[in-house]
């Protein structure tokens, strides 16, 4: 069933409106016939798609949209092809229309041969076009035609047959073995759609230079074809945990329920991950290492073939600071920390502003003492506090103390995020794994480091926030608080601040990392909404469990009014609060604290990671998990802004025909876009 205008296809591509599509069509169409505009083959392929194929290839590719096969593309045909690109089987339909030269809805043997002989695959791997495989589909006399459904199966089987034909061609002696270099040649020329950069670079290494048997060749290809199934087997073995390392035996045990996966494929998987992560001693000790080797989900993602229709975050900048991780100097690492600090500052300010009213309510609830005092406003609960602040101080009263908060929260959040990333980087091994204790330690270090900014910020903010509670009191300004306290006074309650911030970060960052991994898609990619959810969820236990320390800190930093209890330190405050108000007092403001910290860190972390995605700088170090995408996907995201609706998938589909089926058509040496005649004029 065709996708209607405005609807979304299975790839979540929304159909373009007729008006907008006609506007784009008119922009590129240069041929006018009987008062109606048409696109020529050159307009469509070189102008609109921006692809630099030779003349023969341009004609073939334009024929995909030119269903009337008259050499011109009408608006109706242009719109119909846009709709086709939104269908779930767009890749196969596009390939079918490429081979259906006369547009009659079927493919003949001569049509197939005519197109196939023009591809690079035929030039590299000559295929027996009169052999038994072709006869099975087109008949012994090759007069049978095949429809779309049959063609889709034929194209899939044909590509597999090409690999087998290539193996037979390389195996000149008929021994059932080919050399490692021949194996590499076949994989690169016939099966390149299955190869990630890591796999491609290790095709010879994984064979250890030995000859490749036919069973090994088949198992290797089967493994790469079934990587999505391997991922499910891994998740089944780990209970959905993407960071838990598992051994070969554990993966084999889980794979028993999947008859498609063989022990040889599992062996190759571990050999391949070992080759990718090899060190100077790996090959010397590989037998021992393989026996005890463990893999994680990230290893599978580095091997799994790319999905060429994957959408990623648009990058505003893309800078490569180093050519390889080996080039990371001390200066580059300092630049990386500065980069993270800057982005963390922006993210912290965004997060703090978003939840500041909740923070003000939390502070006033925590400072409320048992009993009634002259001039003190009594709050029944957080909602009552919010209403009374607005009633007595106006809406802007909810943002009392925001300016000093932003001045301090930017470096505070920045140093927390930077230190956490820095320590995690140092404790992460070459396979990208970090032990649980390392995650906790990184978070604790981040929490401890931020106190240098947090404490002065907190004491000024708190005194400004509670100032509005005194009816008719003098207006309190941030600078006056700083002058009154002095340098050492700004660090009053620092011990309580450490008592709160160190465990908070030690809980928060590991939980965020694991929650984010759990919310990632099958490729390990995190959508911004999953980042927000992970950040918010991780904040719930972290914020609630350290509330007692936060209450003590608040009491120490607030100026006690007449009749209120004073405290000399953390232990003294804890004893007096327990004696005078009971254990429940330690949990005052818990709800407000959770409602403030949870969304604040959710907003902060999603902002921080999205900024790293959009303002991309490659320092040769680690990137936030869930944000990395393959280079091919990055390149496909840089498309013509006129490629809207279904045409967002046009270039990925052409790429898919070339990579998945190996049907690359000849191009010019230049890759520059050739403008249409109308644009040139």
UniProtKB/TrEMBL annotation:
Keywords: Calcium, Membrane, Metal-binding, Mitochondrion, Mitochondrion inner membrane, Repeat, Transmembrane, Transmembrane helix, Transport. This is EF-hand domain-containing protein. PROSITE patterns: EF_HAND_1, EF_HAND_2, SOLCAR. It is found in: Mitochondrion inner membrane. It holds the Pfam family EF-hand_1. The lineage of its organism: Eukaryota, Metazoa, Ecdysozoa, Arthropoda, Hexapoda. One of its GO terms (biological process) is malate-aspartate shuttle. Belongs to the mitochondrial carrier (TC 2.A.29) family. Its main location: mitochondrion. Residues 87-122, 158-193 form the EF-hand domain. SMART domains: EFh (SM00054). GO terms for molecular function: calcium ion binding; L-aspartate transmembrane transporter activity; L-glutamate transmembrane transporter activity. Homodimer (via N-terminus). It comes from Aedes aegypti (Yellowfever mosquito). GO terms for cellular component: mitochondrial inner membrane. Solcar repeats lie at residues 335-426, 434-518, 526-614. It is a multi-pass membrane protein. InterPro entries: EF-hand-dom_pair, EF_Hand_1_Ca_BS, EF_hand_dom, MCP, MCP_dom_sf, MCP_transmembrane, Mito_Solute_Carrier.
């Amino acid at each position: 069933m065709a996708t209607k205008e405005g609807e979304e296809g299975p790839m979540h591509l929304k159909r373009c409106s007729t008006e907008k599509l006609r506007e784009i069509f008119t922009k590129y169409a240069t041929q006018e016939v009987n008062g109606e505009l048409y696109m020529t083959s050159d307009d469509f392929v070189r102008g609109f798609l921006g692809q630099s194929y030779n003349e023969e290839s341009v004609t073939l590719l334009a024929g995909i949209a030119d269903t009337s096969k008259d050499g011109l593309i009408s608006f109706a045909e242009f719109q119909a092809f846009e709709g086709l690109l939104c269908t779930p089987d767009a890749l196969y339909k596009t390939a079918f229309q490429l081979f259906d030269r006369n547009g009659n809805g079927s493919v003949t043997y001569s049509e197939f041969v005519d197109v196939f002989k023009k591809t690079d695959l035929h030039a590299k791997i000559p295929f027996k076009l009169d052999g038994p495989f072709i006869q099975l589909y087109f008949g012994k006399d090759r007069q049978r035609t095949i429809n779309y459904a049959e063609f889709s199966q034929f194209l899939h089987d044909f590509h597999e047959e090409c690999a087998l034909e290539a193996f037979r061609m390389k195996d000149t002696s008929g021994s059932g073995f080919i050399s490692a270099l021949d194996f590499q040649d076949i994989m690169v020329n016939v099966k390149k759609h299955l190869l990630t950069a890591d796999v491609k670079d290790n095709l010879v290494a994984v064979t250890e230079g030995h000859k490749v048997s036919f069973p090994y060749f088949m198992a290797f290809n089967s493994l790469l074809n079934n990587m999505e199934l391997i991922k499910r087997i891994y998740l089944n073995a780990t209970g959905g945990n993407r960071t838990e390392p598992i051994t070969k035996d554990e993966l084999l045990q889980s794979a028993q329920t999947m008859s498609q996966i063989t022990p040889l494929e599992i062996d190759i998987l571990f050999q391949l991950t070992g080759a990718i992560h090899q060190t100077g001693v790996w090959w010397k000790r590989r037998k021992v290492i393989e026996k005890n080797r463990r893999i994680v989900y990230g290893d599978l993602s580095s091997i799994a073939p790319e999905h060429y229709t994957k959408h990623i975050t648009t990058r505003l900048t893309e800078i490569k600071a180093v050519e390889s991780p080996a080039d990371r100097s001390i200066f580059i690492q300092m630049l990386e920390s500065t980069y993270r600090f800057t982005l963390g500052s922006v993210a912290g300010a965004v997060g703090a502003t978003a939840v500041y009213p909740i923070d003000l309510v939390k502070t006033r609830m925590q400072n409320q003492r048992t009993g009634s005092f002259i001039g003190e406003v009594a709050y029944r609960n957080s909602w009552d506090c919010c209403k009374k602040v607005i009633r007595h101080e106006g809406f802007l009263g909810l943002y009392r103390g925001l300016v000093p908060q932003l001045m301090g929260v930017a470096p505070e959040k920045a140093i927390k995020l930077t230190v956490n990333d820095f320590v995690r980087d140092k404790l992460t091994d070459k396979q990208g794994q970090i032990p649980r204790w390392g995650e906790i330690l990184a978070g604790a270090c981040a929490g401890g480091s931020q106190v240098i900014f947090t404490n002065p910020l907190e004491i000024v903010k708190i005194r400004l926030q509670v100032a509005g509670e005194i009816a008719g009191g003098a207006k309190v300004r941030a600078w006056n608080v700083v002058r009154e306290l002095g340098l050492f006074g700004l660090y009053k309650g620092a011990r309580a601040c450490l008592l709160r911030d160190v465990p908070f970060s030690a809980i928060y960052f590991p939980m965020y990392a694991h929650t984010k991994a759990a919310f990632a898609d099958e490729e390990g990619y995190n959508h911004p909404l999953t980042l927000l959810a992970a950040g918010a969820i991780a904040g719930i236990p972290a914020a609630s469990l350290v509330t007692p320390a936060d209450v003590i800190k608040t009491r120490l930093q607030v100026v006690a009014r007449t009749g209120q209890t004073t405290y000399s330190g953390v232990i003294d405050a804890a004893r007096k609060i327990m004696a005078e108000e009971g254990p429940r007092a330690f949990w005052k403001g818990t709800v407000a604290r959770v409602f403030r910290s949870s969304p604040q860190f959710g907003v902060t972390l999603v902002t921080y990671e999205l900024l790293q995605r959009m303002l991309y700088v490659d320092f040769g170090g680690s990137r936030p998990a869930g944000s990395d995408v393959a280079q091919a996907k990055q390149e496909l995201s840089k498309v013509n802004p006129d490629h809207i609706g279904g045409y967002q998938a046009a270039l990925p589909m052409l790429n898919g025909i070339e990579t998945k089926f190996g049907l690359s058509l000849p191009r010019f040496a230049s890759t520059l876009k050739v403008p249409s005649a109308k644009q040139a004029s």
